[in-house]
């Protein structure tokens, strides 16, 4: 049987013939999502090949779902699972993403949703746990951050932007990336991060944010997720709102006793983390476009490049990397 046939097994025999199973746009992973209609309430099925090789106690999505639920964070309800088919049946949280509302005429409504999302983020980052268990045993350590930098070099510079970058500069650029990584690996400041906390992974259900795609959560600087939302590749926030959200995030963490860094240190690490996070995003977008043939991601490349110049101009630690990336910055934002 195919995936759609297996999805129908979640329902009784009479209902199966009346179901409509429609694949919907997912993320940049191997997971596939389907909306099921034809019953009283629509639902979402997720097919993940990795679930077949896991069990209910080792599958990251279910571990994170249980953790977030215990801490009263808004996540879709898990209605049923069929691990043997790699399937989960989830509550349908609708079709409206935070991204869809970011450019709406009612700016105050969208601004309030962003404020709510920052408050949810502080809730995630207040969660602590056993460092030997998921998700707390994973982190944005040196190996992980450099993997993301190297992925960018391979798929953005050596492939998508090959005409704009001299391969002979790759060694010098990688040394700069190593130096930036050294600054960002500060385990004493690490907190739990969603890992993809951007406007496409925050659904709006009944006027309130709901989190999706949280299975890759890991420890890292609190700025990692804040950057994902505030300097989002999928939408361009008003500068005043972006600054307000940074301040709100910092104060939430400070008031909860989650961090000890000063506000200046927070902003400094925000800019360096934003540089790394946007570089990582560019690697993903270029790989999805040039290697996997998914042109929908190409439209996010230029907006992401546009962010980089601001970080490079404001932080001396990024100047050398910026000089090596200058052809990309000059040509890529208009490509």
Q: Return the structural class.
A: alpha+beta
Level-1 CATH class name of the largest domain: Alpha Beta
CATH-level-4 superfamily name of the largest domain: Aminoglycoside phosphotransferase (APH), C-terminal lobe
Main β sheet profile? 5 strands, antiparallel
Number of domains: 2
Strand order in space, largest sheet: 1-2-3-5-4
Helix content: 40-55%
The outline comes out as globular
- Tally the helices: what do you get? 14
Task: Classify the beta-strand content into a percent band.
Answer: 5-15%
Mean pLDDT: 94
Task: Give the CATH topology of the largest domain.
Answer: Aminoglycoside 3'-phosphotransferase, Chain: A, domain 2
In quaternary terms, these chains amount to single chain
Order of helices and strands: HHEEEHHEEHHHHEEEEHHHHHH
Question: Alpha-carbon distance between the termini?
Answer: 44 Å
Backbone CA Rg = 21 Å
Domain Aminoglycoside phosphotransferase: 20-246
Keywords: Transferase
Protein name: Aminoglycoside phosphotransferase
Pfam family, one: APH
Would you mind describing this structure in some detail?
There is one protein chain. With 335 residues, this protein is of the alpha+beta class. The chain folds into 2 domains: 3-91, Phosphorylase Kinase, domain 1; 98-332, Aminoglycoside 3'-phosphotransferase, Chain: A, domain 2 (Alpha-Beta Complex). The protein is built from 14 helices and 9 strands. The chain has helices at 3-8, 13-16, 49-52, 60-70, 98-102, 107-125, 142-160, 170-184, 223-230, 239-255, 263-291, 301-314, 319-324, 326-332; strands at 20-24, 32-37, 43-47, 78-82, 87-91, 191-193, 202-205, 208-211, 218-220. The strands form 3 sheets. It has a 5-stranded antiparallel β-sheet with strand order 1-2-3-5-4. The chain has a two-stranded antiparallel sheet with strand order 6-9. Strands 7-8 form a two-stranded antiparallel sheet. A hairpin with a 7-residue loop joins strand 1 and strand 2 (32-37). Helix 7 packs antiparallel against helix 8 and helix 11 (263-291) runs antiparallel to helix 12. The mean pLDDT is 94. Keywords: Transferase. Residues 20-246 form the Aminoglycoside phosphotransferase domain. This is Aminoglycoside phosphotransferase.
């Amino acid at each position: 049987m195919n995936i759609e046939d297996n999805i129908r097994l979640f329902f009784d025999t009479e209902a199966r013939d009346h179901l409509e199973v429609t694949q919907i746009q997912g993320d940049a992973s191997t997971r596939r999502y389907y909306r099921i209609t034809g019953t009283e309430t629509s639902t979402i099925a997720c097919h993940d090949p990795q679930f077949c090789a896991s069990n209910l106690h080792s599958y990251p999505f279910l571990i994170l779902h249980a953790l977030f639920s215990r801490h009263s964070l808004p996540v879709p309800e898990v209605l049923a699972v069929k691990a043997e088919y790699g399937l989960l049946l989830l509550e349908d949280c609708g079709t409206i993403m935070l991204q869809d509302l970011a450019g709406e005429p009612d700016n105050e409504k969208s601004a309030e949703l962003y404020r709510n999302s920052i408050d949810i983020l502080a809730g995630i980052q207040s969660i602590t746990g056993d460092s030997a268990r998921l998700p707390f045993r994973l982190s944005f350590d040196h190996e992980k951050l450099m993997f993301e930098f190297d992925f960018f070099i391979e798929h953005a510079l050596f492939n998508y932007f090959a005409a704009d970058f001299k391969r002979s500069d790759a060694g010098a650029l990688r040394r700069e990336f190593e130096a930036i990584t050294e600054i960002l690996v500060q385990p004493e400041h690490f907190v739990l991060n969603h890992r993809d906390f951007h406007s496409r992974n925050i659904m709006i259900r009944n006027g309130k944010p709901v989190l999706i795609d949280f299975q890759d959560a890991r420890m890292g600087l609190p700025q990692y997720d804040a950057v994902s939302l505030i300097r989002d590749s999928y939408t361009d926030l008003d500068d005043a709102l972006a600054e307000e959200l940074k301040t709100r995030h910092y104060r939430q963490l400070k008031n909860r006793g989650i961090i000890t860094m000063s506000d200046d240190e927070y902003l400094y690490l925000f800019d360096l983390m934003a540089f790394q996070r946007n570089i990582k995003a560019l690697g993903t977008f270029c790989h999805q476009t040039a290697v996997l043939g998914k042109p929908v991601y190409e439209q996010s490349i230029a907006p992401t490049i546009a962010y980089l110049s601001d970080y490079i101009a404001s932080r001396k630690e990024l100047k050398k990397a910026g000089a090596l990336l200058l052809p990309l910055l000059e040509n890529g934002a208009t490509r």
